[in-house]
Amino acid sequence: MTTYAMPDKQGRYGKFGGRFVPELLMPALLELEEAYEKAMKDPDFTEELDYYLKQYVGRETPLYYAENISKQLGGPKIYLKREDLNHTGAHKINNTVGQALLTKRMGKRKVVAETGAGQHGVATATVCALLGLECVVFMGEEDIRRQKLNVFRMELLGAKVESVSQGSGTLKDAVNEALRYWVSHVEDTHYILGSVVGPHPFPKIVRDLQSVIGAETRKQMLEQTEKLPDAVVACVGGGSNAMGMFYPFIQDETVKLYGVEAGGAGITTNKHAATLTAGNLGVLHGTMTHLLQDMHGQIQEAFSISAGLDYPGVGPEHSHLHDTSRVTYTSITDKEALEAFQYLSKIEGIIPALESAHAVAYTMKLAKEMEPDQSLAICLSGRGDKDVEQVKAALEGNKNG
Amino acid sequence: MGKQRIEEVFQDKLAAGQKLFVPYIMAGDGGLDILEERLLFLEECGASAVELGIPFSDPVADGPTIQDAGIRALRNGTTLTSVFETLEGFRNKLSMPIIFMAYLNPIYKYGIEKFAADCEKAGVDGLIIPDLPLEEEALVVDYLQEKSIALIRLAALTSPEERLREIAKRTEGFLYAVSVTGTTGARAAHQANVINYLRDLKEITDVPVLAGFGVSNPEQGRELGSACDGVIVGSKIVELLYQDKIDEVKRLIQGSIYNTSISSSSTR
Fold this sequence. Notes:
The complex is a heterodimer.
Chain A (H helix, E strand, L loop, with lengths): L11 E2 L2 E2 L8 H15 L2 H15 L5 E3 L1 H7 L3 E6 L9 H14 L4 E6 L3 H13 L2 E7 H6 L1 H9 L3 E5 L6 H15 L3 E3 L10 H9 L1 H14 L5 E6 L3 H7 L9 E9 L10 H4 L1 E5 L2 E5 L24 H8 L3 E7 H15 L5 H13 L8 E6 L7 H13 L1
Parallel strand pairs in A: 4-14, 5-6, 5-8, 6-7, 9-10, 9-14, 10-13
Antiparallel strand pairs in A: 1-2, 3-4, 11-12
Chain B lengths: L2 H13 L4 E7 L8 H11 L4 E4 L10 H12 L4 H11 L7 E4 L2 H7 L1 H11 L3 E3 L12 H6 L3 E2 L2 E2 L5 H10 L4 E4 L15 H11 L4 E4 L5 H8 L4 E4 L1 H8 L3 H12 L6 H4 L1
Parallel strand pairs in B: 1-2, 1-9, 2-3, 3-4, 4-5, 6-7, 7-8, 8-9
Helix pairs in contact in B: 4-6, 10-12
């Protein structure tokens, strides 16, 4: 197998990716790329990053053998990569620590970010508090309604949360506003993008910073089972936890990789966020990738019970891995995710984020096709505390309806 | 006609001692039925060309005024196809150049080759794509060149000199000098360095230089116009048309193009 070396110099993953942004932002992207490449070669930077990941974030996170669900499902041994145990409760902080350190290194004092579920916003506000950076977070008004607690968290951490009412009032619209804000403040502000989306070099930076998940998982699997997993499963919205989990396994041909998108009310309805399963090629937020769009190229709203997966695009590298069939992309409905949310809580005593519950739900299906001598690792990208109110409402609605 | 029409019309106006004025309107704002009337009116007011916005769901370079106009146009069911059809119906009544301002995705989805052919058919002479920097333009240039559709490049205040030179070298028809560090929308004042930026751009290119973004009154139009060849006005025109204040549109255009004949009534 040839060495996997994506992206190329133009920020392309095959035909996907690139830098489709206004000229105003091009110098900032070029500056960021140069600063990032230099930083990653500078031991002072990487040691500082490692220090914060260990002492502040709490890495490495456990790879937990979920014996109860493994036995109940009767298939492979199932391991949970516990990104929910990171400081702030999700994988998002792996990226924000790195980008905040980079912000300081570039001599910028202000940060702008978008957030969907609020996890990336909280993770950004957290590191900005830590490193003394000013922070503005754009969040869709629908998401603000769904995730009130995270809004208050960000404010406690000293960030300014700006409500976005344009469009569907979700993640896509928050990205638009964050980009507009960045266009207007580019000289002193860094945009800490939260997923493997947007213009180059963001998909690469976020992937690299998140690949600590997969690198640890790979090492821990070898330590605990003396072999690599047969399957790796992660949920995909923009796709940062999945890209971080998959990347270190891409050249391990025996390891099957599964990306699970949000099927919402079902992919045959118009209410879903399954971009790779049901979308097609286009350009959004600076990158060429699969999108949910109509026949005139207008971007459609995504729907999912999980705010963090509610995005009508997907990282360009996922589009590439989909096109080359290295990763199998599939989808899970809101209903299935809700069932998995309760199942993992009851059987393992771990309340997963609704996003991560999509990966658990697909594992419950996949396990039936696998054997007890096989193993499977799930990226449990976040904890579900933020979702309990919404799940309670959904379950009561089901009972009453 | 394409690129050639932009060059000829602009040269004629400049040779007559006028400054250039390019109003922006959103296609389909108010319905495509009134597009003909609006374009004829703008030409009659003295517009040098018109920049016709194609609505897009996610216009990241635009401020609130143009975003709202785009939403109204999309709600009317405006599509690239319907804009082309509408233009074809009355193009021969207008002599000024028509320039599309379109984000990449609707064009990409339409098919770039078909798009270029339909531009030629409908008499669209030039194209501005705000989310297509130099690095990515190979996607469209050959198709546009084949039909002589001008690809108008945008320069930014943040662009280093080397990039500005490359942008100035490649641009066709004119050079679009984005004159704020921000999105489209009316501004009370421009940064102090804008005048020098415009003068510098004039030095490095042979085509006309037009300043755009943030221009909302004849004073700003004349101030920026004095350092280059004219201005592009978007949000203010969109707002005035939406409010049906057509007399003010006329005053804004005429107060900007005639550098020397500023009547006291238009300056207040």
